[in-house]
Amino acid sequence: MTSASEPHPADPPSAPRTTSSLHALFGLDPAATGGGPLPLHVTGWAQSLDAGDRALRTALHDGAVGAAGAHALGRAAALLGAAEAATVLAARSAHVLPAEADLTLTVVSALVPALVAEATSALDHPAAPQAPRTERLRGALTAQFPWLVHGFASEAVDGAGLAEAVRLGAPLPGTVDAPGPDARPRGGCSPVQALPRLVGGSALDDAGAEVQSLAESLLVAGDELHRRMAELPTEPAGSPTGRELAAAYETLYAATACLTLWAAGVAVGPLWLRTALRALLVRLHRLLLEPPPVLDPYPAEELLAIALGAGARLLTFRTVDEISAQADAA
């Protein structure tokens, strides 16, 4: 393991997330997308994620890494993995959960550049933030709080659509229509609204005690978040408090994306889930202006291993064809 006195080994090359490779993963035919907004969103998300990857790889190659550096690198890798999980789930959800498409695109388009900027903020070459656009998106999200609060309280979930959203590589409908000016998230947000059922069920039994505890803590924080969203007066442009709550909602979406993809067996990696959940839980409490949970720090060696793994993709996704082939081989 690299210490402060040892040179850092080169990490494996990481191919950029080209639009074509993302289309292949999402099962999306670029020729069939028409003029819908999803390809533009996917390309923007990919560019943000690649900027984060470049910042992380540059930091890994900069030289010796001590305990403090390992913490920054490990946290950056965890948040980048969470951003990628949110991107993957959102790209398919926009097609198979069309009533939620406007909300999904708004949430993830604000979340991804913000998470990437935060993930790399402690590195020598941080990714540039996109604050003005992110603030506008969060202002728009606050107007949808009443629908989201109702959906979370009633645990309204499009189960069939959500199940299809995690079937990576499966065919998708051709287009996602651009939302109108008065569009509302008629279905709310199924991934977030499924969190109580996910935490209370058996899907996370094999995830380990720490992940289960983190998921329970996320649910408690999610309850508090929605309580505050319900109490917030609706303002057309959104208030500073509303935008902070919108950022917290984005964070909760990222956490539920991580859990949902892991529970479906399509997102694999030995360290990414619990590390990402820890980072997101701390972020969620900070946005709610609450004391962060007391979590035992990972050893520097483990955090550095997480960062090194990110160079070869911290998070690996499996398509339905790959899962089927693996099952047949077994």
User: What can be said about the biggest beta sheet?
Assistant: 2 strands, antiparallel
Order of helices and strands: HHHHHHHHHHHEHHEH
Distance between the termini: 34 Å
Strand content: under 5%
Give the spatial strand order of the biggest sheet: 1-2
Structural class: mainly alpha
Please, how many helices?
Answer: 14
Question: How many domains is the backbone divided into?
Answer: 1
Q: Roughly how many Å is the radius of gyration? A: 19 Å
Task: Pick out the low-confidence regions.
Answer: 1-15, 28-35, 178-184
Number of strand elements: 2
* Helix-residue proportion: 55-70%
Overall 3D shape = globular
**Taking all residues together, what is the mean pLDDT?**
79
Keywords: Membrane, Transmembrane, Transmembrane helix
Region (Disordered): 1-21
Transmembrane segments: 252-273
Question: What features would you describe in this structure?
Answer:
- The chain is an all-alpha fold and 330 residues long.
- The protein has one domain.
- It contains 14 helices and 2 strands.
- It has a two-stranded antiparallel ribbon with strand order 1-2.
- Helix 2 packs across helix 13, helix 3 crosses helix 11 and helix 11 packs antiparallel against helix 12.
- It starts with 18 loop residues before the first helix and ends with a helix.
- The relative contact order is 0.16.
- The N terminus is likely disordered.
